[in-house]
Each structure stands twice: as structure tokens, then as C-alpha cells.
Design brief:
The chain is α/β, with parallel strands linked by helices. Helices cover 37% and strands 19% of the residues. The protein is built from 6 helices and 8 strands; from the N terminus they run H-E-H-E-H-E-H-H-E-E-E-E-H-E. The strands form 3 sheets. Strands 1-2-3 form a 3-stranded parallel beta sheet. A 3-stranded mixed beta sheet has the order 6-7-8. Strands 4-5 form a two-stranded antiparallel sheet. Helix 5 crosses helix 6. The radius of gyration is 20 Å and the shape is elongated.
């Protein structure tokens, strides 16, 4: 298995970088590398924790639809008890509530701790981003989800989802054919996304649900 690894320059806050400098050019190259990547590894310093800038970079990764992995480096410097990593994850999950699908690995570049697990995780996350679900299986899952939790109503009119189809990968993208887009509530769309994740995995990758009104026959 061949991999191309791109070690990007650090991305500081925009107002801390002067225009026309090498650093400004390096940041542009780093953002371009994210756009071209199959999997983005968001590397954090364990001693510093997740900074506001880290959250912004993670947001950019999601905005670009990239599968991703949070890599917490310098884990050898942290004093630990049995719950240290879980406490760390809990804090990061709160900061990255918009990326609740993302996975974490705690490493030390200095000691080599868990370094060799990285590419195995990258491979699995990439496979998730490339996953295709057959229309039949997808619609069985959709039907089960709607039976467990009925679609919402608004002004006496109920949302009807006729069927779903996958139209793209990287990230996995699904079209839901509905009677009226305005009847879809954010919380129900999130529920359907979680139902698809529970059924199909999609580890470490965003998924897109696109609504389309089915033409009336």
C-alpha cells in the first residue's frame, strides 16, 4: 500500500501573519494540501490541549468534506492515570461537537508510542470515506429509522421521504427525495445521519444528506 504524506506548515491565526511573507505563502500551501488530501491528520500538542486555532483548522477540514483523524502528540509528557485519555477526549469532543464522528489517537513522535497504528487507522478511515451503500440496503435502513422515529409534521403536514440514493463518495453523499424540504427539521436530519452511521460505520468521515423534492406525478 503506497501513501503520500504531506507535512504541512503550521497554520497560525490570520492576523498574526504579515502579508507577502513566506509564512503567508506556507499557510496557503497548507490549506491547499487539505483540499487535495484523502485523509487529514489534525495534529495537536498534548501539553497545550486543543486551542481555538486548532478548532478553526478542524472546521476547515470538515468544510472541505475531508475524512480526518485527531492526532494528539507529545503524549509522553502528560502525567496520566487510568482515565486521562478519556478526560482528554471528553474535552476535545466538547470543542469539536460539530465533528462528533472524528476519531482520536494519542502518540509520541519522540518515543514512537502508537506511531505504527496511525497508517492502519488512516486506511480504515479512507475506506469509510470511499464506502458505497446499495440503494436497497440504504432504503431498508431509512425505512427502519422512520418506523422507529416518525418524520416531523408542520402545520398539520407530515414530511414524507420517498427514497434515498447515494450519489458520491469522499465524503459519502446521499440524496433524500422528499415531499417538501421545508418540513425537514435539523434534529430529524441529524437523527437520520446518526442512523446511517450506526448501520454503516463511516468512521472518521463526514457524510452529506441532500434534500430534493420529488416531482409530483
Amino acid at each position: 500500500q503506497k501513501y503520500v504524506l504531506i507535512d504541512t506548515a503550521g497554520i497560525r491565526r490570520k492576523k498574526a501573519i504579515d502579508d507577502g511573507t513566506v509564512e503567508r505563502y506556507s499557510v496557503i500551501r497548507s490549506l491547499d494540501a487539505i483540499r487535495r488530501a484523502d485523509v487529514a491528520l489534525i495534529v495537536l500538542d498534548a501539553a497545550a490541549g486543543m486551542t481555538e486555532q486548532d478548532v478553526k483548522i478542524a472546521g476547515y477540514v470538515k468544510e472541505q468534506g475531508k475524512a480526518s483523524l485527531i492526532v494528539v502528540n507529545k503524549w509522553d509528557l502528560i502525567e496520566k492515570d487510568t482515565n486521562t485519555s478519556e478526560k482528554f477526549k471528553k474535552k476535545m469532543r466538547a470543542d469539536l461537537a460539530f465533528m462528533d464522528y472524528v476519531d482520536y489517537i494519542f502518540i509520541s513522535a519522540k518515543t514512537g508510542q502508537r506511531i505504527y497504528k496511525l497508517l492502519d487507522m488512516v486506511k480504515e478511515i479512507y475506506q469509510s470515506a470511499c464506502k458505497r451503500i446499495s440503494t436497497g440496503v440504504l432504503n431498508d435502513t431509512l425505512s427502519d429509522a422512520m418506523q422507529l422515529n416518525e418524520p416531523p409534521t408542520k402545520n398539520g403536514k407530515r414530511l414524507k421521504i420517498k427514497y434515498a440514493a447515494q450519489v458520491a463518495i469522499k465524503p459519502p453523499t446521499f440524496i433524500l427525495f422528499v415531499n417538501d424540504q421545508k418540513l425537514m427539521h435539523f434534529s430529524y436530519k441529524r437523527y437520520l445521519e446518526n442512523s446511517f452511521r450506526e448501520a454503516f460505520g463511516f468512521r472518521g468521515t463526514p457524510i452529506n444528506l441532500i434534500l430534493r423534492e420529488k416531482e409530483k406525478e
